[in-house]
Specification:
With about 120 residues, the chain is mainly alpha-helical. Helix content is about 75%, strand content about 5%. α1 crosses α2.
Amino acid sequence: MNFIIRWIVTAIAAAVAVWLVPGLSATGGDATVGIAVFSLVLALVNAIVKPVLQFLSIPITVLTLGIFYIVVNALMIELASWAAGGMFGTGVQVDGFGSAFLGAIIISIVSAIVNGLFGKDRN
C-alpha cells in the first residue's frame, strides 16, 4: 500500500513538472497514461538504483552541501524516461539535462507538499 501511495504522489508531482517545464512532455498517446507509466518506472528506479548512486556520490554531496542530490534526482528522471519509453513506448520525454534538472526540483517540491498535506503521519 505504501508503494501505491508513493506512486500516486510521484504521478501528481510528475504531472505538475510536465505542465511547468517546457522540456518535459508526455508521449505515447494519452498524457495521463504516459505520466502514470513514467511515475511507476521512476518509483521503481528510485527504490532500486537511487540508493546505490547516493552511496557512491556521498563525497561530492558532502562537498556541495547536498546540492549534488538534485543532480542525482535529475539522472533518475533521465533514466526513468529512457526506461519507460523503451519498455512501454510511453512516458515522459526529457529534452535535455537542464529540463531534467528543473523537473527534479519541481518534483521534489511538489512531492514534499503533497506528502505534507496527505502523509500517513498526519492525524
